[in-house]
Amino acid sequence: MPVENFVTEELLQIKLQIVLQTWPLYRTLDYTGAQKTKAVPEHISLFCDTCVKETFWEAYIYAGEDNRCGFSQKEYKCRNCANRRVSYYFCWARQSDNRTLFFKVGQYPELEEQVSKTLEKALSPEDLKLYKNALKLRNFNLGIAAVAYMRRVVENRMNDMLEVLLEAARVHNAPAELLARHQEVMKEKRFAVKVDYAGDLLPANLRPAGKPNPMTILHELTSDGLHSKTDEECVDIFDACRQTFEYVFGKMRVETEDAKNFVKGMALLTGKRKAIEENPA
Questions:
Q1: Which residues of the chain have pLDDT under 50?
Q2: CA dist 86 to 51, 83, 139, 230, 252, Å?
Q3: Could you tell me the CA-to-CA distances from 218 to 166, 186, 258 in Å, in that order?
């Protein structure tokens, strides 16, 4: 991974929060600058199983504490309930060339494979197991294997994703010629073709002008260049693909169903009103 340069202590603190909260074990933050920072952040943000929501967690940092001494450990507890705790084991040390390295070597409880209830319901038991395996591999910095599992799940559910996107496109009044291609693409064997069509179906408000189409990240799952990428690079690919997949197959599915039910409800009310007007008591 490239060496990062932090021009302020605040920027390094923010980065360390991200590393503790989300990075897999043994993924190394290699950086220069911000040499005054010697202790891990006092606060981080994590999901608390007791509070059933994202909360702030805090650690005790004493005055003058220096964690940059090789291997060290720090415990955080939920500020909201004060019951849940998480311990991080990490290595943090300066190098002879003024670079500094920081990486986690352990975490308890382990970084969880959290899958939303909405997504759990949408996936078959087989695909859910594959998806959780992908998350476990990602959390141990085995990005290449994680991406392979992710591709399997996305391929298995691509037709279902296209159905969700088709309904969303209809709600947003997509062009008729785009909708007409649906059945043809559903029979298509090439994954890349389906990804392209999924990108075309995505509502315009989710792909504003000048911004990349979120669905294009799924092309990384089919890229030949993937075979030459490192585990850490594949972790980044996995995280981006996961965000797109979970949004479309989870949140967008629910929103689309709500929109369809609203349209049906309005049609029913309109029908009843018309019947009353045609047949007044």
A1: none
A2: 15, 10, 16, 29, 32
A3: 18, 17, 26
Same domain assignment for residues 49 and 139 = no
Q: Which two tokens stand for residue 20?
A: 């503790």
What residue type is 61 in one-letter code? I
Is 280 within the bounds of a domain? no
Distances from the Cα of 195 to the Cα of 155, 165, 218, angstroms: 10, 11, 7
Residues 6+ apart with CB under 8 A from 57: 43, 44, 45, 46, 48, 76, 77, 78, 79, 84, 86
What residues have CB less than 8 Å from 186, skipping those under 6 apart? 159, 162
Range of the domain at 170: 117-267
Question: What's residue 208's pLDDT?
Answer: 67
The sheet with strand 70-78 has its strands ordered as 4-6, 29-33, 100-108, 85-94, 70-78, 53-58, 43-48
Is the distance from CB of 243 to CB of 235 less than 8 angstroms? Answer: no
Helices (H) and strands (E) in the chain, counts: 9, 7
Q: What local confidence, expressed as pLDDT, does residue 254 receive?
A: 62
Hey, what amino acid is at 114?
A: Q
Task: Looking at the structure, tell me whether residues 94 and 223 fall in a common domain.
Answer: no
Rounded to 10 deg, the angle between the 125-139 and 143-171 helix axes is: 130
Q: How long a stretch of residues is the chain?
A: 281
- Look at residues 108, 135, 166 and tell me which one is the last residue of a structural domain: 108
